[in-house]
Amino acid sequence: MSHPKFVVVGHPNKGKSSIVSTLTLDDSIAISDKPGTTTKARSFMLKKGDRVFYELIDTPGFQRPRKLLKILQRGNPNANERPKRVLEFLDAYCSDSAFKDECELLKPIMDDDSGIIYVVDASKPYSDEFEYEMEILRYCAKPSMAILNYIGDGDYTKEWESVLGQYFRIIKPFNPLKATFSDHIDLIEALRHITPKWNKQLKESIELLKEYRKSQKREVAKLIAKEVSEIIGYKLTKSSHLLNIDEDRLKEEFKKELASKEERLFKDIKDTLNFKNSLFEMPKNPFGFELFSNESKEIFGLSKEKLVLISTIGSATAGGLIDLAVGGHSFFLGTIIGAAAGFVGASYGYDELAKIKFLSNKVVEIGPVSDPNFSFILLNRAVNFANRLLNQTHANREAKFEVALNNEISIKQLKNFDSLHSKFRDKKANQKDLKKYEEMIYELLE
Ligand SMILES: Nc1nc2c(ncn2[C@@H]2O[C@H](COP(=O)(O)OP(=O)(O)OP(=O)(O)O)[C@@H](O)[C@H]2O)c(=O)[nH]1
Ligand SMILES: [Mg+2]
Predict the structure, then answer these.
(1) How far is CA 259 from each of CA 231, 284, 378, rounded to the nearest angstrom?
(2) DSSP 123
(3) Co-location of 292 and 379 in the same domain
(4) 172 vs 180: CA distance, rounded Å
(5) Domain count, the chain
(6) Is 363 inside any structural domain?
(7) Which atom, in ligand 1's list, is nearest to the CA of 60?
(8) What is the mean pLDDT of residues 304-327?
(9) From the CB of 216, is ligand 1 less than 6 Å away?
(10) How confident is the prediction for the chain on average, in pLDDT?
(11) Residue 290 domain-assigned?
């Protein structure tokens, strides 16, 4: 079955590859501030299994549109002769390196019954050279739309709209670095309206895309539930002679193991969300501070008050009462206010890290981390990391992490998390508990 196909074209360095990367959820596409980064037309498909949602073809920018248009205009062809002119140009000039970029971008347009997405940078003023490009595209006689991208701070929207309006039926702003999932959907929705041929299939693609997003969130929730619960219950066993065990070193090693398990979880989340290439070359510390650090505790841990609250509530009903007492909501994500007030504790969480146990005079065991705050820190870090990636486009290669403290959760829910965490620590959780944990995590994903 054929599928919707669009060729993304425009001037060099206007964000064509960025748009392709964001819309196909592919971070392997080369993007840079150097004009001429893309030198060959290349096809990218968004698909699941055999079902192609759509295909986008990234292309190099126009280099000599004025010269090319002159060639096409020779003899002033009638409207119905123009597409043929483009084909003749391709035949006659594609061995000529002077027009190699133009040939790369025109071939896929003329090859099949594909549509055109023309990208401009509306933060810079319009100038005549763009008219040559638009005229050339008009010669191709394909369904087309224009995207207004904003690479700089300027705003020449009005100017651009009045020109683009003469060539394109649909003009849409789209920011490939900041687009949300709903912006993405809106753009595909707009494409439906330029191509009657693909209208029905694109409608299905939109539904599939929404389903795909949900399934990715479910997968991420499952991963976090599984790996966080394992880390919470993790014990390190070492052979050692009773007399020469170095407790500090053992604790360090234990912490290192836990941190590397968290790193593994981050990597799994990244892979699940298709961030495989450029992002986070060093996934070790996406937040800029380590799992076992005061920053981590202060930003992702629960305040002492909340820990006391959840440990003193006996039943779910009591939880409801406490909710009333604290106004129904509580900030889930940590005690950043405490941090601002210079609240720095010496220990890791609020309790001791973990007990060291001698299983025999040759075997020593450490773990699991007894501090209940550790579980919340771990969970929060994972949820934050996932939410950041769920809301990051694949064109945005910025690895810097800003912690977003925007999850609200009731004390009752905190209590539920805490009860599950205790089960994971004591290795008393069953499949049902894990499933419940997964569902609660799913609710925290944005
Ligand atoms: N601030 C900002 N920068 C953007 C945006 N879109 C693209 N850029 C940047 O603009 C530069 C060019 O982006 P590309 O996607 O490589 O542009 P292109 O049109 O494919 O460029 P060529 O392949 O060279 O023709 C990169 O540095 C991008 O990070 C945007 O919406 N906002
Ligand atoms: Mg490019």
Answers:
(1) 9, 8, 10
(2) T
(3) yes
(4) 15
(5) 2
(6) yes
(7) 25
(8) 60
(9) no
(10) 87
(11) yes
Residue 44 or residue 315, greater confidence: 44
- Domain identity same for 169 and 244: no
Based on the domain organization, do 242 and 336 belong to the same domain? yes
Atom number of ligand 1 nearest to Cα 176: 31
Number of helices (H), then strands (E), in the chain:
16, 11
Q: Which domain holds residue 186?
A: 5-194
Q: Using one digit for the tens of pLDDT, what is the confidence trace for 96-147? A: 788 999 999 999 999 877 999 999 999 999 999 999 999 999 999 999 999 9
Query: Which residue has the CA at smallest separation from atom 3 of ligand 1?
Result: 151
Q: For residue 260, report the distance from its CA to the centre of ligand 1, in Å.
A: 35
Nearest CA owner, ligand 1 atom 11: 33
- Which is more confident, 309 or 430? 430
Per-residue pLDDT, averaged over 296-325, amounts to 68
Q: Are residues 88 and 18 in the same domain?
A: yes
Indicate whether 349 and 420 sit together in one domain: yes
> Does ligand 1 have an atom closer than 6 angstroms to the CB of 38?
yes
Asked whether 52 and 213 are in contact (CB, 8 A), the reply is no
For residue 314, the model assigns a pLDDT of: 57
CA of 158 to the centre of ligand 1 (A): 21
Q: Which of 18, 28, 56, 120 has most ligand 1 atoms within 8 Å of CB, for mutation?
A: 18
3-class DSSP state of 120: strand
> Domain of 148: which CATH number?
3.40.50.300
Neighbours of ion ligand 2 (CB under 5 A): 16-17, 37-38
Measured between alpha carbons, how far is 425 from 414 in angstroms, rounded to an integer? 16
* 91, 177: one domain: yes
Atom of ligand 1 at shortest range from CA of 38: 23
Is residue 174 a contact partner of residue 163, using CB atoms and an 8 Å limit?
no
| Amino acid identity for residue 266 in this structure | F
Verify that 408 and 293 share a domain, yes or no: yes
Cis peptide before 125 (omega within 30 of 0): no
Taking Cα atoms as reference points, which of 36, 68, 197 lies closest to residue 137? Answer: 68
C-alpha 415/C-alpha 420 separation (Å) is 9
DSSP readout, 16-56?
A: HHHHHHHHTT-TTS---SSTT---S-EEEEEEETTEEEEEE
Cβ of 136: how many Cβ atoms within 10 Å? 25
In terms of domains, do 105 and 164 share one? Answer: yes
Position 208 in a domain: no
pTM score, two decimals? 0.89
pLDDT at residue 243, as a whole number = 65
Q: Is the CB of 35 under 6 A from ligand 1?
A: yes
* 378-404 CB burial, b ≥16 within 10 A, e <16: bbbbbbbbbbbbbebbbbbbeeebebe
